[in-house]
Design brief:
Blueprint (H helix, E strand, L loop, with lengths): L1 H15 L2 H4 L4 H116 L1
Helix pairs in contact: 1-3
C-alpha cells in the first residue's frame, strides 16, 4: 500500500543520490540502509501478495459456499413442495375415506333398519301362521 510506495520512492531517491547523500551518511551506511529498505519492500510485497492470495481464496470459498447454500435451498424447496403435494393428497384421501365411511355407516344403518323391519314382518308372519294353523286345526277338529 502507501508504506510500500513511500519506501519505493526512498529507494528511487537513493539511486538518484539526492536524499540520502545530503544527510551526510557515509557510503557504506547508505548502502546498508538501501539493502535493508530493499528487503523490507520485498517482504512487504510478499506479505501483501500472500494476503491478496488469501483474500482471493476466501472470496472463492465464499462463492462456493453461496452456490452450495443456494443448491441446498433449491433442493429443500423442491422437497417442501413435494411434501405439500403429499399432504394435500393425504387430506383428499382422508376426506374421501371419511365420505366413504360416512356413506357406509349410513348403509349399515339402513340395513339394520331393514333387518328390524324384516324381523317384525317375520314375527307377524309367524303369528299369522300360528293363527292359521290353529284355525285349520280347529276346522279339522270340527269336521
Amino acid at each position: 500500500g502507501k508504506m510500500i510506495d513511500t519506501m519505493r520512492k526512498m529507494v528511487e531517491q537513493k539511486e538518484s543520490g539526492s536524499v540520502m547523500s545530503s544527510q551526510g551518511k557515509n557510503n557504506d551506511a547508505v548502502e546498508d540502509d538501501f539493502v535493508r529498505l530493499q528487503r523490507m519492500i520485498n517482504d512487504l510485497e510478499g506479505q501483501s501478495s500472500s494476503q491478496e492470495n488469501v483474500i482471493e481464496l476466501l472470496r472463492a470459498e465464499m462463492v462456493n459456499l453461496l452456490v452450495a447454500k443456494r443448491m441446498v435451498e433449491e433442493k429443500l424447496m423442491v422437497e417442501l413442495e413435494q411434501r405439500d403435494v403429499a399432504i394435500s393428497n393425504l387430506k383428499s384421501l382422508c376426506k374421501e375415506r371419511a365420505d366413504e365411511s360416512s356413506f357406509l355407516e349410513d348403509e349399515i344403518e339402513k340395513l339394520r333398519a331393514e333387518n328390524v323391519r324384516l324381523r317384525v314382518r317375520s314375527q307377524m308372519l309367524e303369528e299369522e301362521n300360528v293363527e292359521l294353523e290353529t284355525k285349520i286345526s280347529l276346522r279339522y277338529d270340527i269336521l
